[in-house]
Design brief:
There is one protein chain. The chain folds into two domains: 2-198, NAD(P)-binding Rossmann-like Domain (Rossmann fold), CATH 3.40.50.720; 294-431, NAD(P)-binding Rossmann-like Domain (Rossmann fold, 3-Layer(aba) Sandwich). The chain has 19 helices and 14 strands. It has helices at 10-21, 33-40, 51-60, 70-74, 98-110, 127-137, 158-163, 175-184, 186-190, 200-231, 235-243, 264-277, 283-306, 310-313, 336-346, 359-365, 375-379, 399-405, 420-425, and strands spanning 2-6, 25-29, 64-67, 79-82, 115-119, 144-148, 168-171, 195-198, 317-321, 350-354, 369-371, 384-387, 410-413, 429-431. The strands form three sheets. The protein has a six-stranded parallel β-sheet, with helices on both faces. Strands 11-10-9-12-13-14 form a six-stranded parallel β-sheet. The chain is globular, with a radius of gyration of 23 Å. Bound molecules: nicotinamide-adenine-dinucleotide. Nicotinamide-adenine-dinucleotide binds at residues 6-12, 29-32, 35, 83-86, 99, 102-103, 121-122, 151, 153, 155, 262-263. Nicotinamide-adenine-dinucleotide binds next to helix 1 and helix 5.
């Protein structure tokens, strides 16, 4: 089947490349001419393990191509995916649906045959209805079915997640949509990946409910970490102790500096707004957003305390290891490191940083930070070393070298990748999260 993927960002590009790898003919479309030009040269716009190879293989097999021409790209496509951004609308936290609506309008005006239009973007309940209206208003005479198919891939593990998903959720309202989606996902059917067919509105809500639940889990363990510090307990053992219970599960129970990234912050806000509008507020999610927001700056204060407090910290130097919101991505969207740096800079602390993939994206967001070529260059003359993202490259630092280069052997490990006893034995003043 020919598939058109409108929007070639994280989700569109990964999904498009994977669909091509399943044997479909895929055109990835984007309005960003520079992005399409680079993709045609084999240059990836994002860092995602395995993506460059996957794209190259499918381009040379003739199954994957790129275009800025939507009319040509969707010509003859049986399924047209919308995978454009749905950022927070400035000012109110609602999802900004202008990109989705614009694509729907263009698709309606350029349809050349019957097709299924699939929202892969994360969109609030009722967006499928709006897309359907826009397509109808465009006056197209072709048969169109609007389907919801939210994406659950994780950045950094996106290809594996797409090809071996825990589940595929498809919200359809008619047999035409259902049949085409079965065809699109047939290779995964054969893999026995579970597929949940449901109504379109339910499918739209599932995505927000999933992200809000995961954000809640992270925030819960972060609050337990704070409590552990006060009462002399160990949050890693608490996480293990509750995570071994199958009803709870061990994932998303790592205490840290708070969640960030391109999804949880905007999606929790958008869910709150949908719920408010529906007269059914989600109080738990509201609390999660508040707790997480204050946590990020609190992590900045934790570093300042390690520097001896507000007075002492002024003029000192912090080495920040890791800037992206998680490892194996270059995505800086809503990364906790942004708030941490802001708190440090406000306190008069000089910040030098290293991130294996994120520095190019980070530089414009963090103009006061000196970007360094490796961890040790950042650590040189630092009064505190801060682990902000758990990249593998930071898990086995040469501690003797760190001690020698740093002004003082002080480490604030916001990801708990080191063991307090080991660090003390190595002569460090060490602070983790939730481990007194
Ligand atoms: P992104 O910003 O990386 O990519 C969006 C792309 O759409 C950009 O390249 C942009 O140029 C393009 N675009 C905008 N308007 C267009 C138009 N009219 N025609 C063609 N292209 C257009 O965004 P993303 O991270 O891929 O997210 C896309 C959607 O998927 C969002 O709704 C997001 O919430 C959701 N999602 C993201 C992730 C993730 O991990 N990033 C995971 C699951 C779901």
């Amino acid at each position: 089947m020919k598939i058109a993927m409108v929007g070639s960002g994280y989700v569109g590009l990964v999904s498009g490349a994977c669909f091509a790898d399943f044997g479909h003919e895929v055109v990835c479309i984007d309005t960003d001419q520079g992005k399409i030009d680079r993709l045609e040269e084999g240059i990836m716009p994002i860092y995602e393990p395995g993506l460059e190879q996957l794209v190259a293989t499918n381009v040379s097999a003739g199954r994957l191509s790129f275009s800025t021409d939507l009319a040509k790209g969707i010509d003859g496509a049986g399924a047209i995916f919308i995978a454009v951004g749905t950022p927070s609308r400035r000012g109110d936290g609602h999802a900004d649906l202008s990109y989705v609506h614009e694509v729907a309008r263009q698709v309606g005006e350029n349809l050349s045959g019957n097709a299924v239009v699939v929202t892969k973007s994360t969109v609030p309940v009722g967006t499928g209805d709006a897309v359907e209206r826009i397509l109808k208003d465009s006056g197209t005479e072709h048969r169109v079915s609007v389907v919801s198919n939210p994406e659950f891939l994780r950045e950094g593990a996106a290809i594996g997640d797409f090809k071996r998903p825990d589940r595929i959720v498809i919200g359809v309202e008619d047999d035409f949509g259902r049949d085409v989606m079965r065809e699109v996902y047939r290779p995964l059917f054969l893999n026995e990946s579970p597929i949940l067919f449901t109504s379109r509105r339910t499918s739209e809500l599932i995505k927000y409910a999933a992200n809000a639940f995961l954000a809640t889990k992270i925030t819960f363990i972060n609050e337990m970490a704070d409590l552990c510090e006060k009462v002399g307990a160990n949050v890693q053992d608490v996480a293990r102790g509750i995570g071994m219970d199958n009803r709870i599960g061990s994932k998303f129970l790592h205490a840290g500096p708070g969640y960030g990234g391109s999804c949880f912050p905007k999606d929790t806000l958008a869910l709150i707004k949908t719920a408010e509008d529906a007269g059914s507020p989600t109080r738990i999610v509201e609390a999660v957003v508040q707790v997480n927001d204050s946590r990020k700056r609190a992590m900045g204060r934790k570093v300042i305390e390690a520097l001896g407090g507000t007075e002492e910290a002024r003029g000192k130097k912090a080495a920040l290891l890791g800037l992206t919101f998680k490892p194996n991505t270059d995505d800086m969207r809503d990364s906790p490191s942004i708030a941490i740096v802001q708190a440090l800079v406000d306190a008069g602390v000089e910040v030098a940083a290293f991130d294996p993939e994120g520095m190019e994206q980070a530089a414009p967001l963090l103009p006061h930070v000196t970007m360094c070529e490796d961890p040790y260059a950042a650590i040189k003359d630092a009064d505190v070393v801060v682990i902000a993202t758990e990249w593998d490259a930071f898990r086995a630092l040469d501690l003797a070298r760190v001690k020698q280069l740093a002004n003082k052997p002080v480490m604030v490990d916001l990801r708990n990748i080191y063991h307090p006893d080991d660090m003390r034995a190595a002569g460090f003043e060490y602070t983790g999260v939730g481990r007194s």
